[in-house]
Amino acid sequence: MAAKKTTAKPNVSKDELLQYYKDMLLIRRFEEKAGQLYGMGLIGGFCHLYIGQEAVVVGIEAAAKEGDKRITSYRDHGHMLACGMDPKGVMAELTGREGGYSKGKGGSMHMFSKEKHFYGGHGIVAAQVPLGAGLAFSDKYRGNDNVTFAYFGDGAANQGQVYETYNMAELWDLPVIFVIENNQYAMGTSVQRSTKSPSLWERGAAYGIEGEEVDGMDVLAVKAAAEKAVAHCRAGKGPYILEVKTYRYRGHSMSDPAKYRTREEVQKMRDTRDAIEHVRTMLLDGKHASEDDLKSVDKEIKEIVNNAAEFSKESPEPALEELWTDIYATELPQEA
Amino acid sequence: MSTEILMPALSPTMEEGTLAKWLVKEGDTVASGDIIAEIETDKATMEFEAVDEGTIGKILIEEGTEGVKVNTAIAVLLEDGESADDIQATSSAPAETETEDATKEAAPAASAAAPETPKVDQSPDWPEGTAMKLQTVREAIRDAMAEEMRSTDEVFLMGEEVAEYNGAYKVSQGLLDEFGSRRVIDTPITEHGFAGIGVGAAFGGLRPIVEFMTFNFAMQAIDQIINSAAKTLYMSGGQMGAPIVFRGPNGAAARVGAQHSQDYAAWYSQIPGLKVCMPYSASDAKGLMKTAIRDPNPVVFLENEILYGQSFDVPDMDDFTIPFGKAKIWREGSDVTIVSFGIGMKYALEAADKLAEDGISAEVIDLRTLRPMDTGTVINSVMKTNRCVTVEEGFPVCSIGSYISSVLMQDAFDYLDAPVINCTGKDVPMPYAANLEKLALTTTAEVIEAVKKVTYR
C-alpha cells in the first residue's frame, strides 16, 4: 500500500531553478512586507505568514498545468503568489481596499481567483479538504484530466472531515492531491502533543490512499513528489497524499509570541534548512547565476513587493455601498 | 535613504506597548528576519524582527519605555553607505493612519414606520384553465428534480440512499434508473464530508442537489452550508459562489424523539447568502424546487415527512416554476391574518375552516419561501384585517413568527388592533410519549384559540 518516498531529483533546467528562486523569494519578501504593514496598523485582524514554507507551494505549482485547481486554509498568501495571482491585488486585500481580490471584503484569509483557479482562502480548519475533493469531483464529472491540490496543515489533519473526505475521494477515485503542510505546530501545539501516530500521510492507508513524506525545505524534492502524485491522479488512479515536512519561522499569526518552541530551534532551521538559501547555493555552486545576478533578482523582487505595498496603501477603501453587494448572485457563474 | 523603524502593532487590539528590550545596538548591521527587539503587547512579550536590511543608525526609544504608541519611530535604519549623520530630525509622534470611521457615514439601517402599502406580486401561479393532476408532494419533488436533470447535465443528486435504495423516503424513486450512477450518487453516512464535497463541486461549476436523509443530520454539516456555501460569494467579492440545493425532510415526523424532530426554518433563515424554501403543497414543492435548482445561490429546501404522502393538484405544464419571495394567499378573509408555511399550513387551514363556522373570516397566507420572505403580502393583509397569528412547528425563541411580529411592529404598528400571537412548538426537546409529543407540537385548537384572542371573541 504505502508508496516509497520519491528520491530521484527531477531534471531541472537552470531557468527553472532560477524561477523557483524568484518565486520563493517573492513570497518571503511579500510576507515580510505584510508583517511590516501589519505592524503599522494597515493590515488588521488575523494575518498568518508563510515564511519558511515557501518551497512547498513553489514545488507543487511546478507540477501543475493550466486547468488544475488549488484550495487552502487561511495561511494562503504564498499559494496565491505561487499560482500567479497579482501581488498588488493580494496586498490590497490584506489592507482591506477596493483593489484587493475580494474588493476588501475577504481579508487575509479569504481571497479567490477564478482566473487562476484558486478557490480560497478558508478560515475553518479543514473545511477546505472536502471542498477540494468537490472541485476534483467536478473535473471527474466532466471527464477532463485536471487535478486539484487541497492543502491543509498538521493541525487540520486531526479533523474528522479530512477522513470523511479520504473515504469518499478513494471510493470515487477523485483526482485530488492532499498536500499536508506539516509545519510541526498547530498554532502552539506540536504534532507530538496532538497525536501518537508518527506519520500523517500513512493514515491514508486506512482508506487505500497512497502517499509519501516529502522534504518540504527542498523545492526540487517537492516538485518530484508532486509530479508523481499528479501523474497518479491524471491517470485516473484516484487521490494521493503528500505529507510535506516544512517549518514556519514566524508565529501562528501576527499576535503569537511563539513561546512553545525555542528561539534556537527556529534559528537552527533558518541557518541550516532554509529552502531559499538552498536554491541560492545550488545556483551559485552550479555556476547557474552569479552573485550579481542574484542581487538583481533581489532588487527586482523588492520592487514588485514595494509596488504592491504602495498600491495597497493608495487603493481606496471600498465604497460604503459595497456592504450590500455580492450577497446573492443574479446569474449562474460562468466557467473560468 | 534611511528608514524609520516604527513601533509595531503585534495583535489585532494593540494600541501601545512597552519596548522591553533592544537586542541590537547602534552600529549593528541587521538582515531581514533578525530579531531586533522584544516588545510587550497587551497580551504577551513578542519578538520584533527587522524587515529591511541595513545598519541601526540611531535608537530613538530607550528600552524599558512603557506606553509607546503604535507607529512611533523607535529607531532609524541606514542603508549601505549612509552614516548616522544623515539622519534627519525625526518626530517620535505616531504617524497618522488614514482609516476612516465608516460607521459615521453609514446610512441609518432602518427607516421609521412608513405605513405605505407594499408593492407585492400576487399574480396567479399558473394561467387560468391549466389542466391539473393530483400528485403527492413526494412525486412533485421527484418530478422537479428529474425535469431539471433532463435539461442540464451539471445537475446531479447525491446523498445517503438516494440511488439504489430509491431514497430513504422514496423521493428519488426511479432517478437512478433514468440518470445512472454518474448523476445519482449514493454516499457513505458522512454528512459533513459530502456536504463539503457538494459545495466544492458547486464552486467547480456543477449544480449539486444534496439530500440529507433528514435535516437533523445536516447539523453535522452546517459549517459547510453556512461558512462555505453561503459566505463565499461575499468573501470573494462576487467572483464565485455555490449554486447548490440542500434538501430533505425537516421538522417533526411522528414518535421519533428529540434528536430526529426539529424544525430548522428559523436557523437557516437567519443567514445572508442562503435562500430558504419550506413548501406546503405539492404544486409549491414542484415549482419552488425547480426554481431552487436553477438559482445561482445556495438554497436550503425544507421538506416534511408527513406531507410527502399528501396529494394536491399540480398544474400539468411543461415547465412550471414558482418564484422565490412570493407568498400565496390560500384563502381570503377580513377578520384576521394567519401566516404559516410548511406543515404549519395544515393547522392554519383547518383552523380557518372551523373559524368560518363561528363567523370569523381568516385570511391564510403561506410564506412558501422564508428567505427572501414576502413580508409585503403579510403587511398588506394585516392592514386589512388588523390582526395576526403566526403558526409554525419550530421552537418559540427567535422563531419565524417572532420575526414577522417585529416586521409588523415596525411597518404596520398603526394597523394592529391586537398583539400578534405566535403559535409554535413548545420550548422543550421533543418527547417520545405519544401524549407528550402531541402536547409539544402546535395544534389546530391552539390556532383557533389564538385567533379568538386577537379578535377578542
What can you see in these coordinates?
The complex is a heterodimer of chains A (336) and B (457). Chain A is an alpha/beta fold. Chain A contains eleven helices and eight strands. Helix content of chain A is 42%, strand content 11%. A six-stranded parallel beta sheet of chain A has the order 2-1-3-4-8-7, sandwiched between helices. Chain A has a two-stranded antiparallel ribbon with strand order 5-6. The longest helix of chain A has 26 residues, at 14-39. In chain B, the strands form five sheets. Chain B has a seven-stranded mixed beta sheet with strand order 11-10-12-13-15-14-20, sandwiched between helices. In chain B, strands 17-19-18-21-22 form a five-stranded mixed beta sheet, sandwiched between helices. A four-stranded antiparallel beta sheet of chain B has the order 1-8-6-3, with no helix packed on it. Chain B has helices at residues 102-105, 137-151, 175-179, 191-203, 222-230, 232-235, 265-269, 282-294, 305-308, 344-357, 375-385, 400-411, 434-440, 444-454; strands spanning 3-6, 16-22, 29-30, 35-40, 45-49, 54-59, 65-69, 73-78, 132-136, 155-159, 184-186, 207-211, 245-249, 275-277, 299-303, 311-315, 328-331, 336-340, 362-366, 369-371, 388-391, 421-423. In chain B, strand 10, helix 3 (175-179) and strand 11 (184-186) form a beta-alpha-beta unit. The interface between A and B is large, with 76 and 72 residues.
